[in-house]
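Model it.
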Amino acid sequence: MNVAIIGAGNVGSALGRSWAKAGHTIIYGVRNPHGGKTQPPSFAGASSRLIPDAVRAGDVVVLATPWNAIKDVASQLGDTKGRIIVDCTNPLALNSEGSLGLELGSTTSGAEEIQKLLPAAHVVKAFNTYGWENFGNSAYPGYGDLRPVMFHCGDSDEAKEVVAKLAADLGFEPVDTGGLGMARSLEPLALLWIRLAIREGRNPNFVWGRLRRESPATD
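Modeled.
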């Protein structure tokens, strides 16, 4: 699969390297492929192009930029009609007391706002509930027999199936949480992860898991 990643920071770099190891072709979308402040990592299976060229070449487009860059990035994507857009961002902001919180209230989400910016695309929220450190090992995230879950949501079942495959390729158990409105739950879950990581000495080496209990025998 051709995966276009917009954003060459920690998240975009970690996801790109791992998907490349899983056999995908990675195309980083940048403002200037030949120079500039932010350049994508160099590894086998990766290339860089101007943002709209990367979008055209990708079967999937992954948004891995800071939240405050989303409006600018969305305006540069070009034609996104029918495109699968994976939103890895979180609308984080410092409140008046200096504590980290979510910029948006409970009546919308970052993913829904991106869908408004790109109304003809199929936006799927995913890869937002952990730090980039947990995306670095293709096919096996390193948590023993437990498969970490990757929650995702979106309004297109077909788009979610594609994103679930990308999550499974990294060793995660994909968990479909429903329509795109469920991003209103997934983004606070990311904030919880961040706050726990900070409380534990800024240790990012934990993820969410799902334990299933066998149904009790009935008489």
